[in-house]
Design goal:
131 residues, mainly beta, 7-stranded mixed sheet
């Protein structure tokens, strides 16, 4: 049975750090491009970072570039998102995903943008950045 177990969310003060993890079962993460998404209150879900299955490179949307780091440990079938210098606008539910069709930049736009067409999702973990 396919399952993602996410952990690491919580409440953190502005400027703080959190590390999210997402462990898969029933699916080999190493076979797929992977991504993290988030959905802030009242906003649409947005893609923020991914690792391409073509070149193994990590890509980031501008709003998190330099602050967040995506990684994967294929031996543990786990993906990670290290978040530093957190801001109140980072408050959202964060989702892991696999089987991303395209990961990277095209015509200056980051993809995946909304997660449309992605079949494998975690349930989400809440990150709240507040003093």
């Amino acid at each position: 049975q396919l399952q993602f177990v996410e952990s690491g969310g919580g409440l953190v003060q502005p400027g703080g750090s959190l590390n999210l993890s997402c462990t898969a079962s029933g699916l080999t993460l190493g076979h797929y491009a992977i991504a993290w998404f988030r959905q802030a209150p009242g906003k649409e879900r947005e893609g923020i970072s991914c690792i391409s299955s073509n070149d193994g490179r990590a890509y980031y949307v501008d709003s998190v570039k330099g602050r967040f780091t995506i990684s994967r440990d294929n031996a543990k079938n786990t993906m990670y998102l290290q978040m530093t210098s957190l801001k109140p606008e980072d408050t959202a539910i964060y989702y892991c995903a696999a089987d991303v069709n395209y990961c990277g930049y095209y015509s200056g736009t980051y993809y995946p943008k909304t997660g449309y067409g992605i079949d494998y999702w975690g349930r989400g973990t809440l990150v709240t950045v507040s003093s």
